[in-house]
Design a protein that fits this description.
This protein is mostly helical and 430 residues long. It has one domain (7-419): Proton glutamate symport protein, CATH 1.10.3860. The protein contains 21 helices and no strands. It has helices at residues 11-28, 30-35, 37-66, 69-101, 123-130, 133-141, 146-151, 155-172, 177-198, 201-215, 225-250, 254-260, 262-271, 278-287, 292-305, 308-324, 331-344, 354-363, 375-378, 381-407, 412-419. The longest helix has 33 residues, at 69-101. The chain starts with 10 loop residues before the first helix and ends in an 11-residue tail after the last helix.
Length: 430
């Protein structure tokens, strides 16, 4: 066993220090703090640069290395069933708490007085996602070329091509082993590169937090504070009640699991991006005793198909906008919103301004709610984005544990040792 690093050299400690320093700079020198956004942008660009090829390599190697395509198919079906069930629960929870709390009541917003120009940057993407219905959604999954999907960092399209390539590689048999070896080696190199990039996470956190506090301050939340607070409460309920129950059924303690992932959760908390920790999360789940083939299939798929916290926000925001603009919603409208959201929520990952874009695509199916009301959400989207990223990440990690337990692909002795801290966990890049 290697000697543990001093606490001040741990990524968790460095991220916490960067978080606190960012808040102090944002309050003391807001002009200077806003300029530090460069650090956050650079860190996220570095992460984005490498996520798509890692997803491709991990998924292909997971399928080809599993050997049994029946098992791969079984895991895939179980994952999709689980994703749909949890997404439906999340969507319903958003509607329920939105009605019970009524965060938009009393705002009496006149849609004609809102600035439509503020939404122009999201119009094209919203049109792309709302056009064509389910058929259009399926066509958007299929890349024009595999290189185009990688170049645009479209994880859903990369995943589709990786599934096709991995399945073909497995069917080829022995002749495909050299290709499998090359992809495994490439994945090892990419993980090492990601390990180097992650060392810059404290700088990314510093830039993101300093910019947010310096640019928006506390006053930016005054008008919509009730919605923001309600959303975070709803996500907490979903995580600790719904996911806590699911993890209990799987025989794993949720609190210990979250403590195990504390470094990654801190990075997501500061950057509002779950992409920033994708490779580290996958490596940690493997170290915890989950088979590589399950991790390699469930996590990348979940990033596009299992957006629990995003689903909560989708329906909660629609109910909020209806209340804020005094728009009555019938039971039929609510059922329509739930049905449309089950589809539109699957296209959220990898779309610039995804929350506003997906909301616009969803509202296009409910014309009674003025889409211009989305302008109200622009000022708090970054703050709510923190909850979305955290909730989505936790939901996907829980999904991987649950499906592994369901499939018999979880080594419970190893998981218990790791979560109890009796075993040293290697760094993700090692």
């Amino acid at each position: 066993m290697s000697t543990p690093l001093p606490f001040y050299r741990s990524l968790f400690f460095q991220v916490v220090v960067a978080l606190v320093l960012g808040i102090i700079l944002g309050m003391a020198a807001p002009g200077f703090a806003v300029g530090l956004k460069f650090f956050s942008d650079a860190f996220l660009k570095l992460i984005t640069m490498i996520v798509a090829p890692i997803v491709f390599c991990v998924v292909v190697h997971g399928i080809a290395g599993a050997g049994d395509l029946t098992k791969v198919g079984r895991v895939g079906v179980k994952a999709l069933v689980y994703f749909e069930v949890m997404t439906t629960i999340a969507l319903a929870l958003g509607v329920l708490l939105g009605y019970l709390a009524g965060p938009g009541h009393g705002m009496n917003v006149d849609p004609s007085k809102l600035d439509a120009g503020a939404l122009s940057a999201y119009a094209d993407n919203a049109k792309r996602l709302s056009g064509g219905g389910i058929g259009g959604f399926i066509l958007n999954i299929i890349p024009t070329t595999s290189f185009d999907a990688l170049a645009r960092n479209d994880v859903l399209q990369v995943l589709f091509f990786a599934l096709l390539f991995g399945t073909s590689l497995a069917l080829v048999g022995d002749k495909g082993k050299p290709v499998t070896t090359v992809i495994e080696s490439a994945a090892t190199v990419l993980f090492k590169a990601m390990g180097l990039i992650v060392k810059l996470a404290p700088l990314g956190v510093l830039g993101a937090v300093a910019y947010t506090v310096g640019r928006y301050g506390v006053a930016s939340l005054q008008q919509l504070v009730q919605l923001v607070v309600l959303y975070f409460i709803t996500v907490l309920i979903f995580v600790f009640v719904i996911l806590g129950l699911v993890m209990k059924l799987a025989g794993v303690n949720l609190i210990k699991f979250l403590v195990y992932l504390r470094e990654e959760l801190m990075i997501v908390l500061a950057t509002a991006s779950s992409d920033a920790v994708l490779p580290q999360i996958m490596r940690k789940l493997e170290v915890m005793g989950i088979q590589k083939s399950v991790v390699g299939l469930v996590i990348p798929t979940g990033y596009s198909f299992n957006l629990d916290a995003f689903s909560i926000y989708l329906t909660l925001a629609v109910v909020f906008l209806a209340q804020a603009t005094n728009t009555p919603l019938s039971i039929g409208d609510l059922l329509l919103i739930l049905g449309i959201s089950l589809v539109t929520s699957k296209g959220a990952h990898g779309v610039p301004g995804s929350a506003i874009v997906i909301l616009a695509a969803t509202l296009s199916a409910v014309p009674s709610i003025p889409a211009i009301g989305l302008v109200l959400l622009l000022s708090v989207d970054w703050f709510i984005g923190i909850g979305r990223a955290l909730g989505n990440l936790i939901g996907n990690c829980v999904a991987t544990v649950v499906i592994a337990a369901w499939e018999g692909a979880l080594d419970r002795d190893v998981a218990a040792a790791v979560l109890n801290g009796s075993d040293l966990v290697p760094a993700p890049a090692e």
